[in-house]
Amino acid sequence: MRCCSSIVVLNVENPSLCSAPGLPRVVDEAYRWYRQGKPVVVALTFLTETADTGASKAGAVRLQELLDRCGIPAATLYCAEERHYGEVLEALDSFPVVIVHGLKKKDATTLGAALCSPSFADRAGQTDAAFAHGAFAQINLVSSAGSAEYGDSPTRLRVGLLGLGTVGRGVFQSLSLYPERFEITGIAVRDTGRPERLPLLRKGLLGNDPWRVIESDADVVIELIGGHEPALALISEALRRGKQVVTANKLVIARHGAELIRLAERHRGSLFFAAAVGGAVPMLETVNRTGGAGPIESLKGVLNGTCNFVLDELARGSGFQDAVAKAQTLGFAEADPTLDLDGTDAAHKLTLLARACGAELKLENIDRSGILGFDARRVHSLAAGGKSVRLVAGFSRGTSTSDARELCARVAPEVVDAEHPFARIRGEQNCLIARRADGSEQVLRGKGAGRWPTTVSVMSDVLAISRSDSWFRFNKPAAFAAPGETFQHGGAA
């Protein structure tokens, strides 16, 4: 059972939002609140009594497709009358986002108030639904001249993009949906000669020198080239120049996060890296928030979508090399997938998760083994018996007062039964289980690899900058503090 103080109702009033670019922007808004731990109801409403409800139904189908593409768990329900509200309440207990269609405009407010009413929860048989005892916030997403206005007046930001690969192309497309918020001033790539890149080259936006982007007047730099160098040097220089930097580079953040955040502090810049762990699964935010409610005793997670995809292919009978090649073709694995397959990538993510809940964990102290050279026939045989193999990363704290700060951490393949949460995820999905000292658990799941799951997380940071209401901004190196230092988190929206 999830606990929160309120739900968010996004009232999508105008049918024009049920098409591009409207619905992708609705996805971004839903994800904004999902990563803050708020249950989200997206109400696709029509304006008049005689309006055709087909538009809202079609919008619901398309919105569900987009949320699925981004790896955000969601359910869709028809909800024209109060008798359907109980179904929404029940769905909210299993999904972070619920789409409802068939409502009139005025019903969105009625629905939100009903879901947060204890008396309604009692009538619906959901007496233990924690979110039915709080408040709701309604946000009206309306359209003016074909562009969605979200109730604020953002400053248009100049954005420089490093990398136009799998994720970079997704981020470029998403930035282009917000012409009133962002101006893309420069893009750096290794190869400017690809045919699909020629229009950007002709516009003067594309080049092969990333330092020109860093030295430009860009307010925000998005680093998506990956690897250690030159990414570290580029991020460092951008921060020295006081820029806002958004990255999905878990290798750089895991190894140099503390020094980069201190660098940002000294030069009035900021570093955002929510996309470094979990893709669309808001793992860092949730761990930080969960830890604030009580000490986290242990974390266990399937943190590498590439390995999970490969293991699922082996379970179906594929050979190891064929499974890796398929992951590369679909954009779930790098050209050189060694760091994924040997457990290093999962170990980097584990260090970030540990730091987000106030624990210091060094890469060299993690006992790790990956799935390189794993016996494909054994995986297939276990699958036939109803079991799954997963690459699991986890740590647990010491049990006594004297060793409570010590962590036992490892990354290794594990065999899990069919009913285990790790067995229920498929392909590139990730799953995290955070366990508190009181025995309560928080379980997260969703797509952790691929263009759109990573894109929606990167865009959430970029949009937070434009709103100045960032959720995962580390002005103080909270998640990288030295042992004994007080942990503080940046302000929430």
Walkthrough of the structure:
- This protein has 493 residues and is α/β, with parallel strands linked by helices.
- 36% of the residues lie in helices and 23% in strands.
- It contains 18 helices and 18 strands.
- The chain has helices spanning 22-34, 54-70, 85-92, 107-115, 118-123, 166-175, 198-202, 210-214, 231-240, 250-266, 283-293, 305-315, 320-329, 338-341, 344-356, 376-384, 421-424, 451-467; strands at 6-12, 40-46, 74-78, 97-104, 135-144, 147-149, 157-162, 182-188, 206-207, 220-223, 244-247, 270-272, 296-302, 367-368, 387-397, 407-417, 429-436, 441-447.
- The strands form three sheets. The protein has a six-stranded mixed beta sheet with strand order 3-4-2-1-5-6, with helices on both faces. A six-stranded parallel beta sheet has the order 9-8-7-10-11-12, with helices on both faces. Strands 14-16-15-13-17-18 form a six-stranded mixed beta sheet.
- Strand 11 (244-247), helix 10 and strand 12 (270-272) form a beta-alpha-beta unit.
- Helix 6 packs across helix 18.
- It is globular.
